[in-house]
Specification:
Layout lengths: L1 H15 L3 H7 L11 E4 L1 H7 L3 H12 L5 E7 L2 E6 L1 H14 L1 H5 L8 E5 L11 H19 L3 E6 L6 H13 L2 H6 L1 H18 L2 H14 L3 H24 L6 E2 L9 H10 L3 E4 L2 E4 L9 E4 L7 H14 L5 E5 L5 H13 L8 E4 L4 E3 L14 H19 L6 H18 L7 E3 L1 H4 L7 H18 L17 H4 L2 H10 L2 H10 L3 H21 L7 H24 L9
Parallel strand pairs: 4-5, 4-10, 5-6, 10-11, 12-13
Antiparallel strand pairs: 1-3, 2-3, 7-8, 8-9
Helix pairs in contact: 1-2, 1-4, 5-21, 5-24, 8-10, 8-11, 11-12, 13-14, 16-17, 19-23, 19-24, 21-23, 21-24, 22-23, 23-24
This protein binds arginine.
Length: 573
């Protein structure tokens, strides 16, 4: 679609006095296909050209019908409505989709840039909240989308593996914990200890003292403390890794907060040299009052460094050592201020990457309409959510397709895909609600619906037999009756296939996987309409060849789009 828009725009430059880019931006998709495939609103031109919009549209129409890409063009209500020549456009799109689907999606706009994407980043010895769940799902998709668009991406898990909570957990473990229970269920047990510590500490404040004592021991390298800390991390990671595997999530690096313990002094020195560090009630801070922000705390009054200092060190590490020029942080909206402060301090330090640092924020996730409060121990464990979704998916598959061969594998793909899709189809800043009935509904706007459409396309191709991967779109010689070369449902499908590139560009520019998720829905709707309106295997040879090529192109584009949002594309289900 991009190429044809550019061609049309170029043809309109002389008559409008606008640039090609401006014209490309102005081209719209008409709300109703009867109006055409593209439309140019001519209202803005009326002033500069001193004619009424319809007259302008009329003049432009005469120009446009002369280019081979355009079948017809006509003015209507101040718009110039454009219908494309169906056959050449369809052939171009379908053949690229079949032969090199990457090229249909991407012009590799970011080649030469390396991005460090920080996502998931759960805390050890603190609950894995729903925020981490969304960060994991959104982050993985952003990594894939950015890679598709040419970025060299480094995925980083900035594990919360340091902090006073470890002192508390060690103290609690030594009082109430035991090795067996933790080993059997590390994340839950550590969380229980965390909750118990806070409850007991309300009655018995001296516990806080003990917590501080153990954290100090940890900082000073006391072997018992270090050993427990390392063990908590190892056991927790085992659990996280299982979930990551289910979700097809993988990181290039696990670089937790503790990794920066020996890298913060350099940052502090730099801040001093830059004259940025000031004292504020015993703490050392960077004053941000000139930017309407509270001070960024670098060292607390007791000399301990904090979250922000580690993030400054991490940003420097990602740029200086890992070679990233773009820094992306997929973290919930409650940390908005933290990232504003962080980026401002980097800017004041003169770091070139400050202007290429982005906080990709997102909304809350609710379960059955209710918010969760981790404080009170109301936690939803991701592994439970996934296990139940897989279970339910398995029951549905059992009922729908009892003879399916690899039911376990498919149930996993469908159950997990349902949870992921439910998250990603929502604009990321909006709240997501989660209900099993909804996410697994095969007829709704769901993961199973999209996967089922992919399986349907695969099934048609399987039944067609032969080597489908070498199909090309048939272009009958001398086919001049362009309007009838593809019927309306075939053409609507081609138009959707042609929008893959725009979907990728927008998803990457806005760091928003929901653009790609919604694109899969549009494509599925178009394919299913095409499928219900046209015989494929039982049609005459020319129609059959064209429709099979359309089916293959759809399967390839859908598989790629699903991959980009982190969802499996089963061939049967
Ligand atoms: N562990 C943090 C939390 O749960 C999230 C870390 C996000 N990444 C970062 N570089 N600050 O709140």
């Amino acid at each position: 679609m991009k190429a044809v828009k550019a061609t049309i725009a170029k043809a309109l430059v002389p008559a409008t006095g606008l640039t090609e880019d401006e014209l490309v931006q102005m081209l719209e998709y008409p709300p109703n296909p009867e109006l055409g495939d593209l439309a140019l609103p001519c209202f803005k031109l009326a002033k500069s050209l001193r004619k009424n919009p319809n007259e302008i549209a009329q003049t432009l129409a005469t120009t446009l019908v002369q280019i081979p890409e355009v079948a017809s063009a006509a003015p209507a209500g101040g718009f110039l409505n454009i219908s494309l020549a169906r056959l050449p456009f369809a052939k171009a799109i379908v053949d690229v989709a079949v032969q090199d689907v990457h090229a249909l999606f991407s012009a590799d706009r970011h080649t030469g840039h390396r991005a460090a994407v920080d996502y998931s980043s759960p805390n050890i010895a603190k609950p894995f909240g729903v925020g981490h769940l969304r960060s994991t799902i959104i982050g993985e998709s952003i990594v894939r989308l950015m890679r598709e668009d040419g970025y060299d991406v480094i995925g980083i898990n900035h594990l919360g593996d340091w902090g006073t909570q470890f002192g508390k957990t060690i103290a609690a473990y030594l009082k109430w914990g035991d090795e067996e229970t933790v080993r059997a269920n590390p994340v839950r047990e550590l969380f229980k200890l965390y909750v118990k510590f806070h409850e007991e500490a309300e009655r018995n404040p001296s516990l806080e003292e003990e917590g501080r004592y153990w954290f100090k021991q940890l900082e000073d390298g006391n072997p018992q403390a270090v050993k427990l800390w390392q063990w908590f991390i190892d056991e927790s990671l085992k659990v996280f890794r299982k979930t990551y595997d289910l979700l097809n999530v993988s990181f290039d690096h696990y670089l937790g907060e503790s990794f920066y313990n020996d890298k913060m002094d350099a940052i502090v020195d730099e801040l001093i040299a830059d004259n940025l560090l000031v004292e504020d009630q015993g703490a050392e801070v960077v004053d941000l009052s000139a930017y309407d922000m509270p001070p960024c705390i670098i060292k607390k009054s007791d000399g301990t460094s904090i979250y922000a200092t580690r993030d400054l060190a991490a940003a420097a590490y990602r740029h200086d050592q890992l070679g990233a020029d773009t820094l992306v942080y997929v973290v919930g909206g409650e940390q908005k201020l933290h990232f504003q402060q962080l980026f401002k301090v980097l800017e004041l330090m003169g770091k070139p990457y400050a202007s290429r640092a982005v906080h990709v924020s997102f909304g809350l996730m609710k379960f059955n309409g209710a918010r969760l409060s981790t404080r009170r121990g109301h936690v939803v464990y991701l592994e439970d959510v996934l296990a139940k979704a897989i279970d339910e998916a398995r029951k549905i598959i059992e009922a729908k397709n009892p003879t399916l061969a690899n039911k376990d594998q498919v149930a996993k793909s469908v159950g997990v895909g349902a949870v992921v899709f439910n998250d990603l189809k929502t604009y990321r800043l909006h709240e997501v609600d989660f209900r099993y009935e909804d996410v697994l509904n095969f007829d709704g706007e769901t993961g199973p619906y999209v996967q089922y459409t992919h399986a349907r396309a695969s099934s048609v191709l399987r039944k067609a037999g032969g080597d489908v991967d070498t199909l090309t779109f048939p272009a009958p010689a001398g086919a001049t009756d362009d309007a009838h070369a593809l019927n309306d449902t075939e053409w609507a499908l081609v138009l959707q296939l042609g929008q893959a590139n725009e979907a990728l560009n927008r998803a990457v520019d806005e760091y928003d996987p929901s653009v790609m998720a919604r694109y899969t829905l549009q494509l599925c709707h178009a394919f299913n309409r095409f499928y219900h309106h046209n015989p494929i295997l039982q049609s005459d040879p020319e129609d059959r060849a064209r429709r099979l090529a359309l089916t293959l192109a759809t399967r390839k584009v859908l598989a790629k789009a699903l991959y980009l949002i982190g969802i499996d594309a089963p061939d049967e289900m």
